[in-house]
Amino acid sequence: MPGFIHLFQHRQYPAAETYLRECLTIREKKLPDDWVLFNTKSMLGGALAGQKKFQEAEPLLVEGYSGMKDREAKIPPAAKTRLPEAIRRLVDLYTAWDKPDEAAKWRKELVARNEADGSTKP
Question: What is the Cα–Cα distance from 37 to 100, expressed in whole angstroms?
């Protein structure tokens, strides 16, 4: 059986949601102040947004990003891409939800993040 990351990447959002909710429950208990908890929130928010559950997705996406940003120094180098991925999920949410001003705000954040990281990705 594929893992939730595989399911998420292949846009199998309902199945990914199931695994991510379970993972979130475990991480809230065992890793309440770890960046991976917030990455899980962001991914769950992305799975919900992919199902057009925008109101449920929004707080998870915002909290996921801000939690990772607050713990950025603790994110290992190999996982540094998780922060711009979280911003991209917010851009995607607000684009799909037809909230262009919010999408533009997060797009600017993404550009600033990429410039700070030396990346040329939009």
Answer: 28
Q: How far apart are CA 41 and CA 18, in angstroms?
A: 13
Helix (H, G, I), strand (E, B) or coil at 77: helix
Angle at which helices 82-96 and 100-117 cross, to 10°? 160
The amino acid present at 66, given as its one-letter code, is S
Task: Tell the burial category of 101 from Cβ atoms under 10 Å away from its Cβ (0-12, 13-18, 19+).
Answer: exposed
Of 12, 18, 98, nearest to 51 by C-alpha is: 12
Number of H helices, E strands in the chain: 6, 0
pTM equals 0.91
**Six-digit token pair at 93?**
């949410």
Residue pLDDT tens, the chain, 122 long: 457 677 777 788 898 999 999 999 999 999 999 999 999 999 999 999 999 999 999 999 999 999 999 999 999 999 999 999 999 999 999 999 999 999 999 999 999 998 887 765 55
- The candidate with the shortest Cα–Cα distance to 71, out of 117, 24, 118, 37, is 37
